[in-house]
Fold:
Amino acid sequence: MADDTLLVSREGAIATLQFNRPEALNALNLEMALAFLAAMREIAADNTVRAVVLKGAGRAFIAGGDLAVLRANPVEGARTLLGPLNEAIRLMHQMDAPIIAQVHGASAGGGLSLMLMCDFVLAAEGSKFNLAYINLGTNCDLGGSWALPRLTGLRHALEIALLGESLSAEDALRLGLINRVLPAGELQTATQALARCLASGPTLAYGRMKRLMRESFDRDLASQLEAEALSFEACAGTDDLREGLEAFFERRPPVFRGH
Structure:
């Protein structure tokens, strides 16, 4: 529906979620938060989804949370909004399917935190990024304090978070916040090409690789080696690994099924 705050579409194994409050630069309100959580629950339960794209309608990706909600009742507004959004973030973190953020215009506050939790970020030239929370007198949410230092290192993370300055797409690329900067006219095509590539890959192995990388910060080397070995054994029992081996010896591209 045209008036839905989140538009969900499906093309083969690719699910696309478009935040759809263009008049408010897609600022996150409760209706959108609940819709996002419902969509992520559906996707997480559907093993035929093998890549996910997040994008925004209109002139921005997501310009943060809806400040009108916080102004009306800061404590209750934050609690009500963050509950479903945090659950959706946890589902994103656990998901095997890679998640791509297709970014243009402004990504600020909660929008930037959500972007940082994605596995890939493709951004249009001219995009702007601002963690912004400090300019309102608060700390970040939606995993921003978890993802940012992992991506940039602590020194850069503190600079971005405490100064609250806007970053260009080139700055964001240099600091490791995003993967690629593209002309605006090429962003959609490049995102879809990446999504199709990922959707044809070994989905369960993607998920295990993502979790190994992210959890490595909390383990010593011996624990990480053990986690890698256990995960490798689990992958060894999949159809995808058998296909990968056969394709290697037959000298042909593998055809992965995601299981």
